[in-house]
Write a structure and sequence with these properties.
The protein has about 270 residues and is of the alpha+beta class. It is about 30% helix and about 35% strand. The protein has 2 domains: about 130 residues, Immunoglobulin-like, CATH 2.60.40.1600; about 90 residues, Ribosomal Protein S8, Chain: A, domain 1. Helix 4 crosses helix 5.
Length: about 270
């Protein structure tokens, strides 16, 4: 569509000084979807980090790297296809970018700066339109097309079950359910609660809402937890990892929620 433009796609290393590590993100600062492939190189050997799909206006964590391992990394490269939901082919040429660490530690530290995407200092590398389409584009395109065709088949089956004829070529987006986990939206009088009690109430609210979403067939849920000290965000993601390992999650759109929300993607069997 004419109103859509290629997104600003970024690789970002975030310096987590408190934990002595670096965290790698891929950021989709645009209105279109991405299919991405990211790999790293260490001692001349390449390693696939991740292949996946990234929604508009969101970011995904790719790697957590202790400081000593970060110093061994030579580079990280990314290639993405850009598409509009419902399209049968990518809308734009592939985009690619490469982050290179360099050898001078002092120079590396100077590359971490304040950005609009994170509270911590980050080293940003922007992806550009690829000059040449390589075999990797073909591999990404095949995976992308398989995913879109699978979604189309599933949608056709759902529509057929409802006795309606599906309009070809359209894949309607899934509605998003928002759940506010701020304490004042859960209980009337929170001022007398101990921090541990408050956190337990918020965790229970999260589990109740998530279970309800799963039962009702909700595909996407945004849990608004705020920034704070990060405990609630950590706890709800730990609950997902332990109790709902088949669910996927990522930071919700920073354009809409800033740093304070988590998007949970629900599909199929949600438990072991």
């Amino acid at each position: 569509p004419a109103e859509y433009f290629p997104p600003k796609v970024l690789l970002a290393w975030v310096a987590d000084r408190k934990k002595g590590r670096y965290v790698l993100y891929l950021i989709n600062n645009g209105d279109l979807y991405l299919l991405y492939l990211v790999r790293s190189r260490e001692n001349g050997d390449y390693r696939l980090l991740r292949v996946g799909q990234l929604e508009p206006g969101t970011k995904v964590r790719l790697l957590k790297c202790p400081a000593m391992e970060f110093e061994k990394l030579e580079d990280v490269s990314a290639r993405v296809l850009v598409f509009h939901p419902g399209a049968l082919t990518p809308d734009y040429p592939p985009m690619e970018g490469r982050w290179e660490r360099g050898s001078r530690k002092a120079a590396v530290e100077l590359m971490f700066r304040e950005t609009e995407y994170f509270e911590e200092p980050a080293w940003i590398t922007e992806l550009k339109t690829a000059e040449k389409a390589t075999g990797r584009k073909g591999m990404l395109l095949e995976q992308w097309q398989e995913e879109r065709q699978r979604a189309a088949r599933n949608e056709n089956r759902r529509e057929a079950g409802k006795g309606r004829k599906k309009e070809p070529g359209k894949l309607p987006g899934s509605p998003v359910e928002e759940v506010d986990l701020h304490l004042e939206s859960i209980v009337d009088h929170s001022e007398n609660l101990e921090p541990a009690e408050a956190l337990e109430i918020q965790k229970n609210r999260f589990i109740t809402a998530l279970e309800g979403g799963i039962r009702n067939g909700v595909k996407k849920m945004v849990f608004i937890h705020g920034v704070g000290d990060g405990k609630l965000k950590y706890e709800i993601r730990r609950i997902i990892d332990r109790q709902y390992p088949r669910l996927r999650y990522q930071d919700a759109s920073f354009k809409e929620y800033g740093y304070g929300a988590t998007l949970v993607l629900i599909s199929g069997n949600t438990r072991h």
